[in-house]
């Protein structure tokens, strides 16, 4: 349906000299949209032409408006020969299609050429007149807002969170078309850039349609990626979370939130809210009431129908008799039913969000992930069992048939993986997956598809159009244990899907929590954390033989589970070494290369107050008789203990001491524990599904039986902490720091190392890789030293293996300064507060000693666990009889067998390894608000016009985002045939990345914005051929263009309001100013 | 394990002032790293030499990319590639255009041509400034010269506008351009005691009073070229020494006024005619280009050195020069009062500045 696109070319500046004779240029501009082209006059002999053209008008369908980019080409007029292109500007006009976003695009855009880079700038004005479209069967989805931000955008509130949307489109890669042999590199690059731009537009439109179908109006956490599959094509795929968002009109409504740098709570966390109805009944959007029925029979049937594995969830109604909290049990069941009903209708109950409105997240189960190795096979190739099902034969397809044929295969691949994730989540007793993401790694014709997320139980309040209102909701919230809403395990403790060590929540003492918790989401704002967090990375390389096709795929599939296991072990060790008990923002990347596999896991470790104190790491030698060896071992042990102590001090982890006494000090764990795990997994022969949870152990035993293990221990100790004044994390905010000042510095750093091809062993490889990452971090700390005290947030490492002996690591992060004095003050109050709390906790403890004693008992309901129970009993000295009360041995066996069945079932999907780990998140205690600061950043005096901030975070410290202008999604190719002249590979890439930043900033500025939030560099593919003096690089970036206002500017108006709104939050009186 | 590629790109371009200085000073990356190590930075930050190497490389690369823009500073302000806060931009430009005293003294008044550029090797050896740095400084001089050479309006303003330099640095460049254009000799041995500041001071006075711009602000090259007419007219001053009566009268007026006020009165009295002849002859000769070039040599030879050999204190020189120029007004036979003031006003300022050890 119709729309009118209007474009005016105003002027150019700093154009390159195109005519050597006159040192000037005769420039003119071609403006192209779809198949229509307009031209400006030639502006003779100037490097700063003033075209001041008429308005070029394009009358187009809004479908085209969404798909097509506006293409502006600047050329040099030549009377005698063909006109020379100076460069191009692609403008995505999508932001002009939403009513609330930008109304005009106007500004200076860098003129970009894929061979020469930026060559001058052009001033353009673009407007769109959109006619109202009443056609119901339209193909366009204008008006659906897209956000890269993985939380509810700041100036909106979520009315409903609908759920997962995904789409992919496939095309032939122009680089591999036959025509590429006869066209210039420039033409080929431009064809590719244009195609990807078109495909992105189409993808976004299609996703928009799905959102409209779901009756949503926005996509949050939109992540679009492209896979360069080489000869088999080019895939652009996207996932996101459909939502219905309501614009917050009154700034006062979220003023308190913008003061706090964290995931802005647009609403007051409902725990503290004396009247939870105020905000849910507020919106003008008509909300339908949905009634829920709670008959137990229904709950049964639902459960059986919902689980496609044989794992049967224990009827929740029977839980009351167990040791689970009396109020919690039935409530949990109730909640589960509702959530289930809400989620069940969905194919994939996934959410790409990593931060949620308060109260959304009820329980967190643990990380679920799935990987699958596929063959991108263009030669006719019958499907072969187990590894892949791609039977597509290659032919020279025209666009349409290609397009029609292809996505189905890819769709099927992803559907398979998602199904797996879903069933993993179910096994964890969860109905939803949050913090969900997908990725690929491609090398030649082998492709690893990965998906991961965090299994969770959600509050149905935000799901579906049935926003629960009235008494029901009120009841729900009253029932929620204050501050512990989601620290309890979502699965039945008697029927755990994997062995874990459960204790009573250290916060409320009523419900069970696991001993460690891994998640892919951000730390919930209201979680109580002790001390500060830190970046934890596990790094791993595995050599692999070079092989072709199937053999290669098989080799990779065989290696994957081991890598997953080792990565997980490393993470666990490092976490313990830091004295912490939870990981947030976990992202495991497995990269495949010609002759190796790389695994890199990054996460932010924290100490959650609700979880037990982690035990130490115990080293055990293999040959106990050798005295010198033992000496060595004890030396190592000492070193490890020292490191743990040092780290605790460094990250200010001083949990209330009472809790230590309660659990008993870390007890060296009998070695058989880990054996048990192993034997268990060996028992079912095909098991690939590894049990990676090391739960149940107070002290973690590292067995040093060979040099490898020795290496591992050494590498544990080689990780140097950041220099003082620096902190780092890969989540949005640093746990334990909350007084950001306004200085931010986003950066991208890329390193490529060449391995010496000789003596490549796994160990050498690991060391090289480890050094690479560590050195990179060290360099970052050094470079940013002027910002101390500061924190590197959202540290995002990406590994790729561009060639045989090359490892490329790309890091994007943002450094944010904070106020040290404030920090000290905070920790002080924090500690005081926790001490206070600890003492009250202690009293509680004394009242319920029995409950506490029994906490380790029912945690391991599998045969191997019995041995442990015995050992545990001997250690803790609890009479066995007491335990027996809570363990029903008859049902025990049943559950065990179902557990094994589950394992077998999983094992059939041989092509991936998966991780499941237990997780709990603590819900807000009053202390959560101790972090809340009613303080605005110092005024930033020199905010000059034209500065565009970029950050991978969803917020800007010390500022309030007032408007979202639309999504920025850009793809660039840069190529050179004079690599040496451009300063070698470093010079080339440095310039290109700087140019990409410049183009992003220019587009944001033209939209009227002054920042990009949730910025991400999704791809940075670099290829070089130094012998030919050539290099090529592809970069794909995205983010949300926004307008922000410094808080200092708002201050006057907001002070009173903020003070008023804050009051309910500041009950604890922890506000430091 | 060798690093093939190693880059860091910030949304705000990071500028390390210390590394920038090393780069401007023309040190190679390895020399710069060595110097930084010596500065104790490793101990302060706990970094390793490898980190320092990578950091230095990175900064050098950035500076190299920025250099193209620094050649036309307004471009640096308008370009979109590097986001640099205005204060940092100013710092980059100011430092880039800053020069070494030792270097400028070597080049001041020389033609900014290829020939001179070839001598940079020698200058580098002589001054101990790296050849790279010499080249940068020389190219800066030449670039500024080329841009403002034929421009209308105030020289200082033009420089400030086209190179965005501070007032202080713009004035220095004005002096350099003025000296280069008029090719004043500054390299003679007897001029070695003079600093760049001395010359710059003189240049400013001369630009203000002796150029076309001093009378008419709407001419090309107004601040760069000396007012030819004025130089022509200066011949008329010769009468002050050629006419013996006038000279005697001038001397007696000066001596009467200064009697008892100078510590070196007798020396002054004895030398008056020589000094006056020297000053007036300098004026009369300025019509010839060659003599313009030798202006400073002449001033030092004819005035500064005789006074210095008699140990005149600076205060006496000032008293003398004031009286010397003022008393011309009471000479009835002398008709070129305005011309004399235009000449002597500037010369007095210059001489006072030039008079030191």
Automatic annotation (TrEMBL), chain B:
GO biological process: platelet aggregation
InterPro entries named in the record: FIBP (IPR008614)
A GO cellular component entry from the record: nucleus
An MF annotation (GO) of this entry: fibroblast growth factor binding
Protein name: Acidic fibroblast growth factor intracellular-binding protein
Species: Fukomys damarensis (Damaraland mole rat)
Lineage, highest ranks first: Eukaryota, Metazoa, Chordata, Craniata, Vertebrata
